[in-house]
Amino acid sequence: MTQQQPQPGLARCYQHQDRETGVRCTRCERPICPACMVPAAVGYQCVGCVRGAAGAARAARPRTLAGGRISANAGLVTKVLLAMNVAVFLAVLARGDQLVVDLGLVGYAVDGGSVFAPNWIGVADGEWYRLLTSAFLHQEIWHIGFNMLGLWLLGPPLESALGRARFVALYLLSALAGSTLSYVLADQTQLSLGASGAIFGLFGATAVLARRLRYDMRPIMLLLAINLVITFAWSGIAWQAHIGGLIAGAVVAAGLVWAPRERRLPIQLGVCALVAAAVLVACLIRTSQLLG
């Protein structure tokens, strides 16, 4: 059988050189055979152009200032956090002070038991969860009212600017840092609770964001100054939690919004990891002091 000679004038597929074709990609105009044709609005496109268009579409998706995904409901995480705090507050009202004793922040204290076999409680006794659970506890209506008002006002703008995942990281790291500084500096038998550390973290992050966007910083700085005055003037407030949350919130936010676009995610993860590591090291040192 005589092999059919290729017809003159027909191009060969750019991927399959043994196949002749008269069709070209409408984007790059390279010749393509039926196996490489992808139907388009007009004519056919090659597989490479289709993949490139899909990648460009993903890259072109709008992102927040910190690189997070833009969502339709930018305040969803804020509402969830608010609902969690209110739910725990209602649980405290229903169960009484025992829930506060079980979940509140205490360093190392004796809770009942006999003289010969005391019942120790606290972070130093291995109850590390108190560092986080205490940040969702409130006993007084004015306490949760002020904290939730701050969350409601500061949360949605930050969530919109950072994205949901980064906002959650900011909130939780601020809460943990506030609890940690209380654990390190306050009396080990002092019981403390409240979301104030996380809220002050949002204050610090808002100040950093305002600086990044070159907004007028006087309103946020005035509001922060007022809250700091109240922190140190009002007896009974755990100022350590406020300061710890404020510092952590500012550091985390700076890493999120000032990271260069080319290495944004590794730098953001690194900053969050450094804050978490500082919290862990401080807790370990304080625990060794209390148990030593």
Automatic annotation (TrEMBL):
Source lineage: Bacteria, Bacillati, Actinomycetota, Actinomycetes, Kitasatosporales
Family, similarity comment: Belongs to the peptidase S54 family.
EC number(s) recorded for this UniProt protein: 3.4.21.-
Residues spanning the membrane: 70-94, 136-155, 167-185, 191-210, 219-237, 243-260, 267-287
Protein's name according to its UniProt entry: Rhomboid family intramembrane serine protease
Cited PANTHER family: PRESENILIN-ASSOCIATED RHOMBOID-LIKE PROTEIN, MITOCHONDRIAL, RHOMBOID PROTEASE
Entry keywords, A to Z: Hydrolase, Membrane, Protease, Transmembrane, Transmembrane helix
Membrane topology: Multi-pass membrane protein
UniProt source species: Streptomyces chisholmiae
